[in-house]
Design a protein that fits this description.
Layout (H helix, E strand, L loop, with lengths): L2 H18 L15 E3 L2 H9 L6 E4 L23 H5 L5 E5 L5 H9 L3 E5 L5 H14 L3 H23 L6 E7 L5 E4 L4 H8 L3 E2 L7 E3 L2 H7 L3 E5 H6 L2 H5 L9 H4 L3 E4 L1 H5 L5 H12 L1
Parallel strand pairs: 1-2, 1-3, 3-4, 5-7, 5-9, 9-10
Antiparallel strand pairs: 5-6, 6-8
Helix pairs in contact: 5-6, 6-13
């Protein structure tokens, strides 16, 4: 065999073999073999929407959508993750929300040379859009980010049309429950307060921010038209009948009319790509 032909053949097969083993790289420097740990459910949804589902090697317990993410290794609750648990998954990239991840945990992870991207997340329409745009741009997926934003904008427009045609603004009381031993109500400047307003309702409790323990006096005084809970919270109380046994609840308009709404927690409070869909569902249920 001609020597030159033999050498050319060897080079061709070597190049072909190398081409099969080259990882495609995004504008941000991520490759298709990049291992990502997400410490936040909303960020996990965005990552999947941007095409990085196969890259995710670990998630926090709130990363429940899409359901396939529940098969991924868990690193705990986003406010209580440990650097050791994250690093045990040997990630190339970790993503989180700046005011949720503990600074010392972020520092420990970054000290190993692992890239850690922290994002700001404001719980509003504009905040959801900014988060999607920032994550998409940071990971070199601007076009896919545009697609997610177009879908969100369409959903929000539909939600706006529903609330514009609704009759009145029902008073909605959100109760966070983990059995009767732990029951809190959501005040102003919370994710629940914001989404209740987006859905055309009014938060039934005013005058305080964050969460406060539920009291029968406060519930009766608030007299909500609708009581809203996470589905897991309502289940922990034994359903609607169990909720009505809580002191003060049956004396409200919501209790008398059994007007109780339950929704998935991450869906209701994620303020990410599915925000518009969550507002639509809540609006349909409270009006």
């Amino acid at each position: 065999m001609n020597t030159n032909v033999l050498i050319a053949g060897v080079i061709f097969f070597a190049v072909a073999f190398m081409a099969c083993n080259i990882s495609h790289t995004t504008e941000s420097g991520l490759s298709d073999s990049t291992k990502i740990v997400s410490t936040n459910g909303t960020l996990s949804e965005i990552l999947v929407g941007l095409g990085f589902e196969d890259n995710i090697v670990g998630v926090d317990v709130a990363s429940t959508y899409p359901a396939r993410l529940q098969q991924k290794p868990k690193i705990g609750h986003n406010r209580d993750i440990s650097a050791e648990g994250v690093l045990a998954l040997d990630p190339d990239l970790v993503v989180g929300i700046s005011d949720v991840v503990k600074p010392q945990v972020a520092e420990q992870i970054q000290a190993t040379g692992t890239k850690f991207l922290l994002f700001e997340h404001e719980y509003s329409k504009e905040g959801a859009k900014r988060l999607i745009r920032t994550v998409a741009d940071s990971l070199g997926q601007a076009a896919k980010g545009d697609s997610l934003l177009r879908e969100l904008e369409a959903d929000l427009a539909h939600a706006d049309s529903l609330t514009a045609n609704a009759q009145g603004k029902p008073k909605v009381l959100f109760i966070y429950a983990r059995g009767t031993g732990t029951m809190m109500v959501a005040g102003q400047r919370t994710q629940l307060d914001e989404i209740i307003q987006l859905a055309g309702g009014i938060n039934a409790v005013q005058g305080f921010e964050d969460f406060k323990p539920l009291t029968s006096e406060a519930v009766i005084a608030a007299n909500p038209d609708v009581i809203l809970l996470f589905d897991s919270g309502l289940s922990s109380l034994g359903g609607i009948d169990g909720l009505l046994q809580v002191q003060g609840i049956s004396e409200t308009n919501a209790g008398k009319n059994r007007k109780v709404v339950e929704m998935d927690g991450q869906f209701l409070t994620g303020f990410g790509p599915r925000l518009g869909k969550a507002v639509i569902e809540l609006a349909e249920k409270i009006h």
